[in-house]
Amino acid sequence: MSEIYKCMGIRKPSILLIFIIPLIGVGFTFAQNSVNDTIRLGAVNENGSNYPMIFLPEYIKIAELMDPDERKRRDRLRNDIFVVYPYALTAATILKGVNENLDKLDTRRERKKYLKSIDKTLDNTFKQPLKNLSIDQGHVLIKLIDRQTGQNCYSIIKELKGGFSAVVWQSVGVFFNNNLSRDYDPDDRDKEIETIVRDMEASSAYRYQLYQQEALLKKVKNQ
Question: Which range marks the domain in which residue 122 is found?
């Protein structure tokens, strides 16, 4: 036997090793059945039978599933926001540019002439699309213009009441019978709109909104 080990280049196993290997296996078997593997549970007794009992973590119920009518209303609101949001983005960009250009003009006559040209441009670009909006979409647009510019439409018209009191600001509110002086309230009155807008801004749909805004700004530029 020793000659066989020599031929295979393997040392002859010692007697100690032969005894240790079975002991390791026995020890592993005992380790699998330790007291730590026992899970203690409470129990309840029903009609003479014991049933295990555990306590689940407490949870807070925050909302119920929408009924069909409420879901339809919510979907309509989401669609309205999706339709008018590019106009609100465009309004914010235009207003910023107008304010910057007005600061560069020295005389009242120059400002009036500039606002008149802007009024004509916006009328040609937005009059027809705004007329095609529904009443609800008009209400949402007024709110989103406030959200994007930080000013309600009434204050914008008052500040730029020259030629700039055109369809983008004034006629939208008049046409849709909305309160132009009411501020956007993302924490209470307009919380639902704010939630939908934030969800949209965090999704891939926002890229489409930016694309629409870019297309609208090109129309303004080409007038």
Answer: 68-222
